[in-house]
Amino acid sequence: MSNVLSQAKKQQVIALGRLGWPLRRIEQETGVRRETAGAYLKAAGIAVRPSGAWGRRPPAKPANENQVTTGFGAGWATLGRKIPSWLYP
Considering the domain boundaries, does residue 33 fall inside one? Predict the structure, then answer.
């Protein structure tokens, strides 16, 4: 079974994950692919940051439900203005 990691290598990956090492660094130091290391850490219950999450903003705050309107010209109506006739086709 050459495609299975040894128990010592698994324990090394898990120990480095518990120390907070990123998957790329674990890959460099142990030779275990990031995907494999991530799978072992996930199975051990260690949180791993999802791929592609760097630089993402938190979700937007929800709109005030009392002022939300829908449809064409809804923004004009909340401003108390009449919809200009040139906006209609």
Answer: yes
Domain ranges, residue 33: 7-43
**Residue 52 located in a structural domain:** no
Model pLDDT for residues 45-84, shown as the tens digit of each residue = 998 876 665 666 666 777 666 655 555 555 555 555 666 6
**Cα–Cα distance, 84 to 27 (Å, whole number):** 61
Angle at the Cα of 20 (from 14 to 26), degrees rounded to 5?
A: 60
Of 17, 54, 50, residue with least CA distance to 32: 17
Query: Does 2 map to a domain?
Result: no
Task: Please count the structural domains in the chain.
Answer: 1
- Return the higher-pLDDT residue of 21 and 72: 21
Alpha carbon distance 50, 45 (integer Å): 14
Q: Quick one: tokens of 55?
A: 């630089």
Contacts with 29 (C-beta within 8 Å, 6 or more apart), sequence order: 16, 21
